[in-house]
């Protein structure tokens, strides 16, 4: 095998590789001998077929197989001989080959840069730790008590008010005809709970026991039952009893309802949960700051193809999001009668595609830089992801799909590629932990409010660094957001309140 380097520009390398015809012929003959041991052709006993006949019968397919093998083996050898650590999958282009002649091909590859990590002991980080907050514990207990509230009959004769529990019978009708699921007897409805469709509970405020009332409501346009969505309904309601809702006492019995043996144990559980949530948010904040410092303190060339691939991924996500937004806006334009709670922001149109691409390329370069740096730190310090680490990550992922945990686990266990995908963030977190251990970390007591203010201030600082046009566009580019840079999850939308119209929950 001969290897001649034909291009060396930055991190890009190109080589001309020549594999001698005799080497290919040797591999073909060895393969034919293997085939001959088990081949069976009409007129010949198994294993007795002449090699020449096998060559005539199987030669083309064996040649293709050997060529693939020759290219794979020789390219790996060429890279090893040159001491090249490939950053991307090498690109191969066969330039010359005829049976019985040398194989010639070009090998193009981006190499990994030489990276010298900084002295991590010079990094200065501030870690926020949860400051005990008895008020939050009490609020959580009150919420739990409300979730287990009971009701008892009121002694005095009076009209209903918000917060009361009304015992009612009701029958729902559309155009005077009862509809399925719109009837119940002895239903306990807490006024002001928002459990029924909008307008229903409000009309029962200020009435007395024994009242027969006609309640008129409109089903929401997005109501689950399509035959009711957007339609006006009339409910005949009979008020049988007014009861006063009372939160459950905050005591050991409340703790037992939560599966714990005592109120003290419940309080400990609440504090533990608050601390766990806080630590997760604080970790995210520290990671954001750390990655910023790492990006600022390292400068090295990046493999062009890696940057291009990352950019292509970001751009594809952005294009898909833009397509979905356009479809959503189009649907909205044809449905003005519906009262949707949209948060449209058309400011992203102020940026041209070229401006978007410039911003996304910066993000791609940052991601590649941080990815290469963390990978090098992990390699140089023998940081490994154990099977236990992977299994733990798979279980955590499966828990995101209640009721389907076993199917998710089976998918991961039967799919090595999926395991590799889940392994990557585990490796990153372990490297981050390693760096944090070496850094100068000071702890500062803080509340949830303090932590949120810090995160918001950091976001504002990032936005302030962007040109004006880009600042306006930022909220619409969640798909292209620099996760590694921000170190945070996107905000989760609050689910819409469940509003069963006229049936028991």
Distance between the ends: 76 Å
CATH homologous superfamily placement of the largest domain: Trigger factor, C-terminal domain
Query: Which runs of at least 5 residues are low in confidence (pLDDT < 50)?
Result: 336-348, 469-505
For the record, what CATH class of the largest domain applies? Mainly Alpha
Level-2 CATH architecture of the largest domain: Orthogonal Bundle
Structural class: alpha+beta
Shape, principal axes of CA atoms: elongated
| Beta-strand proportion | 15-25%
Helix % is 40-55%
Using the CA coordinates, give the radius of gyration: 34 Å
Question: Total strand count, please?
Answer: 11
The third-level CATH topology of the largest domain is Trigger factor, domain 2
Sequence of secondary-structure elements:
EEHHEEEHEEEEEHHHHHHHEHHH
Give the averaged pLDDT, no decimals: 84
Strand count, sense and closure of the main sheet?
A: 5 strands, antiparallel
| Total discrete domains | 3
The total count of helices amounts to 13
SSE diagram, text form:
Layout: E1 2-9, E2 12-19, H1 21-36, H2 51-81, E3 91-96, E4 103-110, E5 124-130, H3 134-147, E6 150-153, E7 164-174, E8 177-190, E9 212-218, E10 232-246, H4 252-257, H5 263-296, H6 304-333, H7 353-380, H8 387-398, H9 405-413, H10 416-438, E11 440-446, H11 448-464, H12 468-473, H13 483-486
Parallel strand pairs: 5-11
Antiparallel strand pairs: 1-2, 2-4, 3-4, 6-10, 7-8, 7-10, 9-10
Helix pairs in contact: 1-2, 5-11, 6-7, 7-10, 8-9, 8-10
């Amino acid at each position: 095998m001969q290897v001649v380097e034909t291009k060396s520009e930055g991190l890009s390398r190109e080589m001309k590789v020549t594999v001698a015809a005799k080497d290919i012929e040797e591999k073909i003959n060895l393969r034919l001998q293997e085939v001959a041991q088990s081949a069976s052709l009409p007129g010949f006993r198994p294993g007795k077929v002449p090699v020449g006949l096998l060559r005539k019968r199987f030669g083309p397919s064996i040649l293709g197989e050997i060529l693939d093998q020759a290219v794979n083996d020789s390219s790996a050898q060429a890279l090893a001989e040159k001491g090249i650590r490939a950053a991307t999958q090498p690109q191969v282009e066969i330039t010359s080959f005829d049976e019985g002649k040398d194989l010639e091909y070009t090998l193009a590859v981006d190499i990994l840069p030489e990276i010298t990590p900084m002295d991590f002991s010079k990094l200065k980080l501030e870690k926020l730790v949860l400051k005990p907050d008895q008020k939050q514990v009490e609020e959580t207990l009150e919420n739990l008590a409300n979730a287990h509230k009971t009701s008892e009959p009121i002694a005095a004769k009076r009209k209903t008010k918000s917060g009361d529990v009304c015992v009612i019978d009701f029958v729902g009708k559309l155009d005077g005809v009862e509809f399925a699921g719109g009837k119940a007897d002895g239903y306990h409805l807490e006024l002001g709970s928002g459990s029924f469709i909008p307008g229903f509970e409000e009309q029962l405020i200020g009435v007395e026991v024994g009242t027969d009332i006609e309640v008129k409501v409109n089903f929401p346009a997005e109501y689950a039952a399509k035959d009711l969505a957007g339609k006006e309904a009339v409910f005949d309601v009979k008020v049988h009893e007014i009861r006063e809702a009372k939160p459950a006492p905050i005591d050991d019995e409340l703790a037992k309802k939560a599966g714990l043996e005592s109120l003290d144990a419940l309080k400990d559980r609440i504090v533990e949960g608050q601390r766990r949530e806080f630590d997760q948010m604080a970790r995210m904040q520290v990671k954001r700051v750390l990655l910023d410092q790492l990006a600022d303190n390292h400068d090295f060339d990046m493999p062009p193809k890696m940057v291009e691939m990352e950019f292509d991924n970001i751009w594809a996500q952005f294009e898909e999001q833009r397509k979905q937004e356009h479809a959503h806006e189009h649907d909205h334009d044809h449905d003005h009668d519906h009262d949707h709670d949209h948060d449209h922001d058309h400011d992203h149109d102020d940026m041209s595609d070229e401006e978007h691409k410039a911003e996304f390329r910066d993000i791609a370069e940052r991601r590649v830089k941080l990815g290469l740096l963390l990978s090098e730190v992990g390699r140089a310090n023998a940081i490994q992801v154990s099977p236990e680490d992977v299994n733990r990550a798979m279980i955590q992922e499966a828990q995101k799909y209640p009721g389907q945990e076993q199917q998710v686990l089976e998918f991961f266990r039967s799919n090595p590629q999926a395991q590799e995908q889940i392994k990557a963030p585990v490796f990153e977190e372990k490297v981050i932990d390693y760096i944090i251990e070496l850094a100068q970390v000071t702890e500062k007591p803080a509340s949830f409010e303090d932590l949120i203010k810090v995160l918001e201030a950091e976001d504002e600082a990032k936005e302030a660094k962007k040109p004006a046009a880009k600042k306006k566009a930022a909220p619409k580019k969640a798909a292209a957001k620099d996760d590694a840079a921000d170190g945070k999850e996107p905000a989760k939308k609050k689910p819409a309140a469940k509003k069963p119209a006229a049936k028991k929950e």
